[in-house]
Amino acid sequence: MDSSDEKKPVSIEANFDGLVGPTHNYAGLAQGNKAAEKNAEQPSNPHAAALQGLAKMRALAAMGFAQGVLPPQERPHIPTLKLLGFEGRDAEVLMRVRRDAPELLAAMSSASSMWTANAATVSPGADTRDGRVHFTPANLATHLHRSIEPVVTGRALATIFRSEKHFVHHAPLPATPQMGDEGAANHTRLCAEHDGHGLELFVYGEAGEKDPKPAVHPARQNRAAGEAIARLHHLDPDYVHHAQQKPDAIDAGVFHNDVIAVGHRHLLLHHEQAFVDGKAIRNWVKRRLKGRDPVFIEIKDRELSVEDAVNSYLFNSQILSLPDGTMRLICAHECQENHKVWAAIRRIVDDPLNPITDVQSFDLRQSMRNGGGPACLRLRVVLDPAQRTAVNPKVWIDDALAIRLEAWISKYYRDRLVLADLADPQLLDASRSALDELTQILGLGSLYDFQR
């Protein structure tokens, strides 16, 4: 091997997508999420939703990208309903909560864990003091239906990334508004190569009484949460930056930063209205990024409105590095259907001054109608060869696993679900049977409360 080969980077950025759960429905639970609010109480198709997400995973794996899968959570979540005072057998609990508090039934039945960009914040070993990958599950404190996710999320991550030699798992931050944390949806890592020391950008919606804040919708991410995670992950303060999201953008439906900005390697693609001070972010990246000149693509208001960005989820696209050094944009079909958005994408692809040279769209309508695009569905984890080997091998997507999961979905998932169905004991039984089988397929052990 010659010296040039020895210098080739060996770490990869793996994507771990969440499988859509059997109770995927449109309850409109997420305040500030325009799509979720718009489609509230419409019938959903869990079978189609799960297959759409799996098709994206399978396609990326076929392209040669490291693609893993994360399991859905048990829903309806009977243990939480019992904590809230509903007694009796499971069927009786469902009957009583539907009669007395249907809003709680909807919250305890949400399939929102499918959006694994909210599962955790992840820092690769290249950035951490001990050289291990650090995970902090998001506390998701803003909404009841999401606040019940962190316990099982932590279990799943600890089971998949089990080696203490390579991985560190932290507890979620205290679930208070002052520590509101929504995970990787508000965190971006920029780097020259995945092997090298990267820059970790934490984006928040609210910091304190003296800072501007949204007037209509909640700011889900607090600055104190990003600061705590940076400490927990033992990140070098010189390579960490905390930036505020524009309050007006949050009020316009940008509930997470990944709805209006996306970064990959040395590239940052964002809307003009993404940050309170975008210039400060760009100057910091220019000063700190080593080994490669950063590339910034800022989409102006005059080119594309925030409303069009939110409706199409353009900035919730994934960006993937290709073997030739160029990048591919993975977007939702809705981007093609909006002529302004598609024109903006074509201008990006046709511009020789940035590395994005290709675009590919996917049908993710079931997720999009509930407010989540391609990037919402994935959690990025940078792994060196030893760390990659230490990952539970059964969660890596290949043709054999994809075919098996397709059959599993067809066996258990309904093709139509309305809110009244959430009280059906047969749905609960089928969901548990599905998850019990899934833990065997993926080698996850007794992950769920009903298995313990």
Sheet with most strands: strand arrangement: 2-1-15
| Low-confidence segments | 1-5
Which fold name corresponds to the CATH topology?
L-arginine/glycine Amidinotransferase, Chain A
Q: How many structural domains can be distinguished in the coordinates?
A: 1
Largest sheet: 3 strands, mixed
Mean pLDDT: 94
Number of helices: 18
End-to-end distance: 51 Å
Radius of gyration: 21 Å
CATH architecture: 5-stranded Propeller
Q: What is the level 1 CATH name? A: Alpha Beta
Strand content: 15-25%
Tell me the number of strands.
15
Q: What is the 3D form?
A: globular
CATH superfamily: Succinylarginine dihydrolase
Name the assembly state. Answer: single chain
Helix content: 25-40%
Q: Assign the structural class, choosing from mainly alpha, mainly beta, alpha/beta, alpha+beta, or little secondary structure.
A: alpha/beta
What features would you describe in this structure?
There is one protein chain. This protein has 452 residues and is α/β, with parallel strands linked by helices. The protein has a single domain (10-75, 110-451), classed as Succinylarginine dihydrolase (L-arginine/glycine Amidinotransferase, Chain A), CATH 3.75.10.20. Helices cover 35% and strands 17% of the residues. It has 18 helices and 15 strands. It has helices at residues 3-6, 34-38, 46-62, 78-83, 90-100, 102-107, 144-147, 150-160, 223-232, 247-251, 278-288, 306-312, 333-337, 339-350, 365-368, 385-390, 399-412, 425-442; strands spanning 12-18, 67-70, 120-123, 133-137, 167-169, 187-190, 199-204, 240-244, 261-264, 267-271, 295-299, 318-321, 327-332, 356-362, 378-383. It has a 3-stranded mixed β-sheet. Strand 9 (261-264) and strand 10 (267-271) form a beta hairpin. The longest helix is centred in the last third of the chain and has 18 residues, at 425-442. The chain is globular, with a radius of gyration of 21 Å. The termini are far apart. Mean pLDDT is 94; it is low at 1-5.
